[in-house]
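Incident review: delayed structure delivery

Summary: a single-chain prediction request sat in the queue longer than the usual turnaround. Root cause was a stuck worker, restarted by the on-call engineer. No data loss occurred. The affected request and its eventual output are reproduced below so the record is complete for anyone auditing the incident later.

Affected input:
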Amino acid sequence: MNGETVRIGVIGVGDISHCHLSGVQAAGGDADVRVIAGRRAERVAPLAAQYGIPDIETDYRAVLARDDIDAVMILTPENFHEEIAVAAAEAGKAMMVQKPVAHSVESCKRLIVAAERAGVNMQVSYMHRYFEEVVYARDLIRSGKFGEIHAVCMRNATSGPIMPWNYDPAVVQGGVVFSLGSHGIDLIQHLVGAVEDVSARTATIMRKRTFSNGEVVTDIELEDIAFATYRMKNGILVDHEMSGCEKKGTDRFLVEIHGEKGTLLLRGPRDPLAIYAPDVTGTSDWHVPDLADRPFGARHPAHWVDIIRGVLPDEASGWDSLAGMHVIQAVYEAAESGSRASVPFLENADYDQ
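Output delivered after worker restart:
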């Protein structure tokens, strides 16, 4: 697009839409959200008013039919992603798809094929990659100054999804591994490389959930606790804990990266990023680096918009999402079988090497 403003349509008005819309606003003036669509006008209109979006629709097809829309953000529950994303590709729209990108490995492949066949850019909403502490840590690891990485401990934990449909097997294909662990799996492969094989255990602890609107879901079977161990292709061992039962404690994720020259702590008790690596930092104590001062959530949409504008090179986050889906599938296979499950290596994915 040669640096032009990207004209955006938003499809989906659930709670996650606030995160993306506020991020687009914070990113600045290179994006113009012109229309938002949801199935019920009474839910769409207040959101449009809150974020100053001029037009609303109740059918996503009306968004895709508009000539004044360059790209769409697909923020619906994942059981609608394939249908909408394939239609967006056929309409020639670039897209950002909320994670998890699809119901299955096969569905994810169909999305990628549709986007590549149509020649449109598809990115996946792995927002954790774009937190300032993650960007800093990845640059440090890639610089080689931190030395060889030995082991990683990753923790994803929340009190659980806040919408009843997150516990409906007709809508979602898994529990905490699928909904929350997908972020951690992407972050692990983004930081330290490709997963080669997996061992795992899962459990369902809370079989009844009560939501803020008073609605109650019972007889829940989807897992809300999972522990996985990954052996990476480069030999690193990773411990990954996933929990949807935590009242308070973890702020999205907690990562320990232990290497030859020291330790990196991301989103731990010592600020967003703390480094103990005397040979690197020049201090014998923990070092807390100065991170870029950006509004929360602004980096991710700004990066996406700049890819569409042609300011930044394309990224392989569609293929990265497929790589993550293979790991998710392996976690479930390993938990069910009690043995290790292998993960295919995808040449097109942008693993950290």
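Verification: The chain has a mean pLDDT of 93.
Action items: add queue-age alerting; document worker restart procedure.
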